[in-house]
Amino acid sequence: MKANECMQVLARHRGDAVVVCALGMAANEWWAVTRSEDSFYMHGGMGFAASFALGLALSIPKTPVWVLNSDGSLCMNTGCLITEAGQQPRNLKHFVVDNQCYQTVETMPMVNDGLSDYTAMARGAGIAQAISIDSLADLDRLMPEIVSAPGPYFVRLRLEAEPDYQRAPPANYEGPEMKYRFGRAMEKKLGIKVFGPRGF
Fold first, then answer.
1. When comparing pLDDT for 1 and 104, which is higher?
2. pTM for the full model?
3. Element (H, E) at 158
4. Closest CA relative to residue 41, chosen from 52, 33, 119
5. Could you give the CA distance from residue 31 to residue 18 in angstroms, rounded to a whole number?
6. Among 5, 22, 128, 194, who pairs with 49 as Cys (CB 3.0-4.6 Å)?
7. Cα separation of 15 and 26, whole Å?
């Protein structure tokens, strides 16, 4: 699977899920496919997408939440799996795009290249539903089951490394503007109050 093709399949099955993207390829490719402003792009915070998504899932338990994590981001914060297992958020789906390299920095090899089994790590942490998917056909076939099943659900997506990868144009905003765009989108989508009259 290639990243863009994988994101297209995920986008078709997204439904009403709120999506949190790890920085780099996951965020850039999700933006390239969806231009989604009710997704949160974790620019500048490697390793924290899963923790952010867990907090979000616990705060809006009736809304499906997805995290599009990366192998590099997961390796920086593997403890997120234990925390997810401890909280057992029924509305959280944790996807990890695993291409065994740091794609956005010239395809540098991942630490412990090819030897780490993220699916086994998730199961060992206590996430009972943890699977690996290696093809677009299997991803498309399994997504309805993944979407409808209660979480937490961990899905390792085995992607091709793309040595000639050209970074997809990232969202043309970040920092405070991203915060407000995402917050306003959540207010509209969920009918909740995110910001007070002074903007925080």
1. 1
2. 0.89
3. strand 153-158
4. 52
5. 13
6. 22
7. 19
